[in-house]
């Protein structure tokens, strides 16, 4: 399998690390050739390719997706390019991995779902937190009924890299490139976790958005921020679970804090990405002994752990991308489905757009279409 990664910055580096290591830690998958790294600036992409271990570089993704030596196209660009690149790559018969969010609008996501259904290649959406062992374990425990029927959930994803009003403009702060602000960036992960952990969809949402810093220094002077800095929502699922969602990139002091809490009729689960090897389980029972139990999710019996280190040797954020690459390669070899699917991306995007619609209508409860 020859791989091309489009984009060589943050996610381009994280995915390069995964492609480099995947066959070493998951020996059941076929080794991949790190064929081509793609970026717009020839000099910078050459340097990145040398640092990250790529055989070659290119500056035009259109030329790369047509090549016979490329089997997998991995899209690590800003959101406005996801649909265009992925649609072209699927049409060219390639297997396609797209970073989250799937695209910047429901309409683009629908086009991608249709294209993936008709394509020869496999399609995977990079909701990498599905490969955090503790979250995969949480899904298993919910499915086994260990906390009873889930009634209530809390999700938050808080960062603070935009707390400083002088932090400069980036593509993430422009609607035309990012689609939305923290909602699409971090809210997409949180909504997908709710869908993934419960195995059901959000059908209704009400929301509020805020842009606390309306202007920021741009490359050509002051620029208007056209997306949200923070968002809040109440989410309702098909079975009647009610969840609160809070996302922010101006939450001073919080670095990368994705927290998930599920409350069931006979127990609860709690997860914090900043302590990603731990899952806190509380099960109702004997009042003297039924307090919260912190499970160290580092045993070979836990999801994904067999591939890595002996029990108790903790994993990190980067392992999720390697495990994701392994699942993708296995699905390609077996010609079997792999999650997160493009449908999962569409389902998440519908919730995000419903939150925006609700905000515009003063917080009105809005159908998501899921
Ligand atoms: N899964 C996660 O945890 C996670 C974390 C961060 C970002 N992301 C997602 O990954 C994607 C990329 O984000 P990032 O943080 O890597 O952004 P980034 O700004 O660090 O990198 C974007 C890259 O895209 C390249 N690019 C832009 N236009 C291009 C074009 N026309 N042709 C080729 N390359 C082009 C840029 O040169 C750059 O290398 C986004 O969709 C983002 O939401 C996911």
What's the topology here?
Blueprint: E1 2-6, H1 10-25, E2 33-38, H2 42-52, E3 56-58, H3 61-65, E4 72-75, H4 82-91, E5 95-99, H5 106-118, E6 123-126, H6 133-143, E7 150-158, H7 175-178, H8 182-198, E8 202-210, E9 215-218, E10 221-224, E11 230-237, E12 242-248, E13 257-264, E14 267-272, E15 278-283, E16 293-296, H9 319-334, H10 342-360, E17 366-367
Parallel strand pairs: 1-2, 1-4, 2-3, 4-5, 5-6, 7-12
Antiparallel strand pairs: 7-13, 8-11, 8-17, 9-10, 11-12, 13-14, 14-15, 15-16
Helix pairs in contact: 1-9, 4-5, 5-10, 6-8, 8-10
The protein binds nicotinamide-adenine-dinucleotide.
Please characterize this protein's 3D structure.
The structure is a single chain. The protein is of the alpha/beta class. It has 2 domains: 2-129, Rossmann fold (3-Layer(aba) Sandwich); 132-316 and 347-360, Dihydrodipicolinate Reductase, domain 2, CATH 3.30.360. Helix content is 33%, strand content 25%. It contains 10 helices and 17 strands. It has helices spanning 10-25, 42-52, 61-65, 82-91, 106-118, 133-143, 175-178, 182-198, 319-334, 342-360; strands at residues 2-6, 33-38, 56-58, 72-75, 95-99, 123-126, 150-158, 202-210, 215-218, 221-224, 230-237, 242-248, 257-264, 267-272, 278-283, 293-296, 366-367. The strands form 3 sheets. Strands 16-15-14-13-7-12-11-8-17 form a 9-stranded mixed sheet. The relative contact order is 0.16. Nicotinamide-adenine-dinucleotide binds at residues 6-12, 38-40, 61, 76-79, 81, 99-100, 126, 128, 185.
């Amino acid at each position: 399998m020859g791989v091309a990664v489009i984009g060589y910055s943050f996610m381009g580096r994280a995915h390069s690390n995964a492609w480099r290591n995947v066959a070493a830690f998951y020996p059941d998958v076929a080794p991949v050739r790190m064929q081509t790294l793609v970026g717009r600036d020839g000099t910078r992409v050459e340097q990145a390719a040398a640092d990250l271990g790529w055989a070659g570089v290119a500056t035009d993704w259109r030329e790369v997706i047509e090549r016979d030596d490329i089997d997998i196209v991995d899209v690590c660009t800003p959101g406005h390019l996801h649909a265009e690149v992925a649609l072209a790559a699927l049409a060219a018969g390639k297997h396609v991995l797209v970073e989250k969010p799937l695209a910047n609008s429901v309409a683009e996501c629908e086009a991608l779902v249709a294209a993936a259904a008709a394509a020869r290649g496999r399609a995977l959406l990079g909701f990498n937190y599905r490969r955090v062992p503790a979250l995969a374990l949480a899904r298993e425990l919910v499915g086994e009924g260990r906390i009873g029927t889930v009634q209530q959930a809390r999700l938050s994803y808080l960062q603070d890299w935009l707390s400083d009003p002088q932090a400069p403009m980036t593509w993430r702060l422009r609607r035309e490139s990012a689609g939305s602000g923290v909602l699409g960036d971090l809210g997409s992960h949180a909504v997908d976790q709710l869908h993934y952990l419960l195995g059901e969809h959000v059908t209704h949402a009400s929301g509020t958005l805020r842009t606390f810093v309306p202007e920021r220094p741009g490359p050509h002077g002051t620029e208007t921020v056209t997306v949200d800095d923070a968002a809040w929502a109440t989410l309702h699922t098909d079975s009647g679970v009610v969840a609160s969602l809070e996302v922010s990139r101006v939450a001073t002091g919080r670095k990368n804090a994705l927290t998930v809490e599920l409350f069931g009729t006979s127990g609860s689960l709690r997860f914090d990405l900043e302590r990603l090897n731990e899952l806190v389980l509380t099960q109702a029972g004997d009042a003297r002994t039924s307090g919260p139990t912190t499970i160290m999710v580092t045993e070979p019996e836990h999801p994904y752990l067999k591939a890595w280190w002996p029990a108790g040797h903790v994993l990190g954020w980067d392992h999720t991308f390697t495990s994701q690459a392994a699942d993708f390669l296995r699905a390609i070899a077996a010609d079997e489905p792999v999650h997160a699917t493009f449908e999962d991306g569409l389902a998440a995007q519908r919730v995000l757009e419903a939150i925006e619609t609700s905000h515009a209508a003063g917080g009105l409860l809005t159908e998501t279409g899921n």
